[in-house]
Write a structure and sequence with these properties.
By secondary structure, the protein is mainly alpha-helical. It has a domain of 141 residues. It contains 14 helices and three strands. The protein has a three-stranded mixed β-sheet with strand order 2-1-3. The C terminus is likely disordered.
């Protein structure tokens, strides 16, 4: 017996299953408590897509639970993963979404989805996202993405360091347990803006060539970053001695000495 059909029709049927939620046999609660979303799926289809799901549902230690909690993945990342698993389609709206989806693809061993996410990030990296992309690329050990992020930082340094993402927003609320997930994802999941890590700050300061209008803009960016670090630690931000001490504590001696020698700074 010959059955007529093609790949497009099969994808269409799978897409209908996803949207109509017919015959689902597993529910996922994705994201941290109070910020999670519920998704439903089909074990057999997901197992066919990902070796991680295959082991989860049909391996020797299979999880027979009808509800599975995934606290270490962003809802948008898991939603994009599901859509890709059912339809082979990916609709990314921002670099942030692409990074969160790439993290999910990495966890569930979907190399084609991961590659599409990384391609999107490479094509859409901007000064506002360069530091976040750099740290994400380090976490994923993606050399090509690391290169693209560094290239953006070197060529557009002024716009990178004057963007609000360069500073820590002290009034943000963490929504992830720092122990449960990768350090990058933990630092990324804030209600408000992303904050760069100390290692990224030092990396930028140690670059041989930076595209700046003036060195003062770099000084100002470092001082503002340090002020926000003071806020995070509950210290006075308008006391230069406190700021200088934080610079000494946080930055390497080679870097901090350049800044602590400057006595007059506008706060």
């Amino acid at each position: 017996m010959q059955i007529n059909g093609d790949a497009d029709r099969l994808v269409s049927r799978a897409s209908n299953l996803l949207h109509n939620k017919a015959f689902t046999d597993v529910t996922f609660i994705v994201g941290p408590p109070n910020h999670s979303k519920k998704y439903v799926g089909h074990r057999v289809l997901l197992a066919m897509t990902s070796p991680v799901f295959e082991a989860m549902f049909y391996g020797d230690m299979a999880d027979k639970s009808k509800v599975i909690r995934i606290p270490d993945i962003a809802p948008i990342g898991f939603e994009n993963l599901l859509r890709y698993a059912y339809t082979d389609l990916l609709n990314l709206n921002s670099v942030d979404d692409a990074m969160l989806t790439a993290y999910a693809a990495k966890k569930y061993l979907l190399p084609h989805l991961l590659r599409e996410c990384l391609n999107y990030i490479e094509k859409n990296i901007t000064p506002s996202s360069a530091c976040a992309v750099y740290e994400f690329a380090i976490a994923l050990n993606s050399q090509q993405l690391i290169y693209q992020a560094i290239n953006t930082i070197d060529r557009q340094t002024y716009h990178v360091i004057t963007h609000k993402s360069f500073k820590y927003e002290a009034n943000t609320k963490k929504i992830f347990d720092p122990i449960s997930i990768h350090p990058f994802i933990h630092s990324f999941f804030f209600i408000s803006s992303f904050n760069i890590q100390l290692s990224t700050l030092e990396f930028i300061l140690n670059r041989r060539y930076l595209n700046l209008y003036s060195e003062f803009s770099l000084l100002n960016a470092v001082v503002q970053w340090t002020q926000h670090e003071c806020k995070r630690l509950g210290k006075q931000v308008n006391d230069w001695n406190v700021v200088r001490n934080i610079l000494n504590e946080r930055l390497s001696s080679e870097v901090s000495n350049v800044f602590v020698s400057i006595r007059s700074v506008s706060f």
